[in-house]
UniProtKB/TrEMBL annotation:
This is Protein SirB1 N-terminal domain-containing protein. InterPro entries: SirB1_N (IPR032698). Residues 149-229 form the Protein SirB1 N-terminal domain. It comes from the Eukaryota.
Length: 471
């Protein structure tokens, strides 16, 4: 049962309903026990409600979960933000739903508890849906990215290898893999690039790597393992492989024929590229490339989160009293680059631009972070997503995610390094600012409601709160 309790109006005038999920409600990031959440749905006056729902296996128990479970405790907001800006998100939502479907296979796989590539998971499709959604977010094309065409290209590569490059009488899996190495990195001339956050985003998109034959090691590992999977499904070979990470920044991911582990200890000691790890690697790089508040010239001082938190704590945000204009006003002691980053982030969230990412891209940063949250990649993704929501003016969900991160952090051993201490202090300041903003808005709502005679009449108060911004 879902009961809408009240409607909160954020600084943009978007209604953010809160909801209670009672016992037995099973959905995206909720346990079977009772919990309170901010629903990933919105409603504008006179506009049909739009939301995306994903059903994924979750861990059991109460409260927030800090393990590897799929986790989105307070909803996901990017697509609804764009819907309310009048942008068609049909293709983006379809790509996200397909991505979530692949994650469902990942979490329910027989290899879910091991460091092995699951051959029930269409890892190539999952990576292509990342490309498809990001393309839809910025191109606004009426035609979706042809995911199946790129999968056909992968099948054509497997057919070409089986027809012309497979040894006539392979003596062992190693001889087949040696021929596949020569095919991929010799005949087809695939090359690896760096795994740096300052790299080219095209190196992390599966379709572009297939076209350009130049990509991140994680994408190359996916292509390699998927070729082997296709050949195995055709009966051309009778073995499967695991992928081992590159040894350095110049080497390639290496395949090894899969062997049954002799013991649990041996299984745990294997250093393998897992499906989840490959997706996390790709999405983390994309998030860092598109993050609107970046370190200047690769400086070792600070972190991307700290830059975003500093921008928030110095007043570059949307306050409840000045929803939009305050984004363009900042105290005199704030660096111009921070103001420019804030403006660019807002502009790209509303319009989306496929240009230089020197000022980041809020849409694709949100998209990458939401996928990392769905993957349960790291509890810090809750924190980073909460910070992005703060800069979008979604203060209640932002507070929910930042509090969820703090709860998870308290359950684990606290880090004592200097950077972690700086980030923790900045986060506390953001939380204080959020509580003040929310309290200010509620006082303002109560004051206006009192003046209009709405206090004491729950139905009129609810109607007032849902239409406050739109008159």
């Amino acid at each position: 049962m879902v009961a809408v309790q009240a409607a909160n109006i954020n600084a943009y005038g978007w209604q953010i309903p809160t909801c209670s999920f009672k016992h037995g409600q099973r959905g995206l990031g909720f346990s079977s026990a009772e919990s309170t959440c901010y629903a990933p749905t919105y409603r504008l006056k006179g506009r049909k409600q739009s939301s995306i729902h994903a059903q994924l296996p979750t861990s059991h128990g109460s409260g927030h979960h800090c393990d590897d479970a799929v986790l989105a405790p307070h909803g996901l907001f990017l697509h609804d933000l764009m819907d309310q800006a009048g942008i068609d998100t049909g293709h983006a939502k379809a790509a996200r739903e397909s991505f979530v479907k692949q994650l469902t296979q990942l979490t329910s796989s027989e290899y879910g508890k091991h460091n092995r590539v699951s051959y029930t998971l269409d890892l190539a499709r999952a990576a292509l849906e990342v490309s498809s959604e990001d393309d839809a977010l910025v191109s606004h094309s009426p035609v979706a990215l042809p995911v199946d065409s790129y999968l056909d290209r992968l099948n054509s590569m497997a057919m070409e290898f089986a027809s012309h490059h497979l040894p006539s009488h392979p003596s062992s899996p190693d001889s087949v893999l040696s021929s596949l190495d020569n095919y991929m990195y010799g005949y087809k001339s695939f090359q690896r690039t760096s795994s740096s956050a300052n790299g080219d985003a095209r190196d992390c998109y599966f379709n572009m790597v297939l076209t350009r034959r130049l990509g991140n090691p994680a994408i190359l590992a996916i292509i390699y393992s998927e070729l082997v999977k296709i050949l195995k499904s055709w009966g051309v070979i009778d073995f499967v492989v695991d992928m081992i990470p590159p040894e350095d920044k110049f080497s390639l991911p290496r395949p090894v024929p899969r062997k049954p582990p002799q013991s649990t200890l041996e299984e745990a000691s294997l250093q393998l590229l897992t499906p989840k790890g490959l997706l996390v690697e790709i999405l983390t790089i994309l998030k860092n490339i598109y993050w609107p508040w970046k370190l200047i010239n690769g400086s070792a001082e600070g972190s991307n989160f700290l830059k975003a938190a500093d921008a928030a704590n110095h007043g570059i945000h949307m306050s409840s009293s000045a929803p939009v204009e305050s984004l363009f006003a900042a105290p005199s002691n704030i660096m111009g680059s921070q103001v420019a980053s804030a403006r660019a982030a807002k502009h790209r969230l509303q319009r989306g631009i496929w240009t230089s990412t020197s000022f980041g891209d809020m849409r694709r940063a949100l998209a990458a972070t939401e996928r990392l949250v769905l993957l349960g990649a790291d509890r810090k993704e809750l924190r980073d997503y909460g910070m992005l929501l703060y800069h979008c003016g979604l203060f209640e969900p932002s507070l929910g995610y930042l509090n969820a991160y703090n709860e998870c952090k308290e359950e684990s051993a606290a880090s004592s390094d200097l950077m972690s201490s700086k980030e923790a202090a900045a986060l506390e300041n953001v939380l204080l600012r959020l509580r003040l903003i929310i309290a200010e808005r509620r006082l303002l709502e109560r004051k206006v409601a009192t003046e209009d005679g709405l206090v004491g009449n729950p139905s009129k108060t609810f109607e007032f709160r849902t239409t406050l911004t739109f008159g």
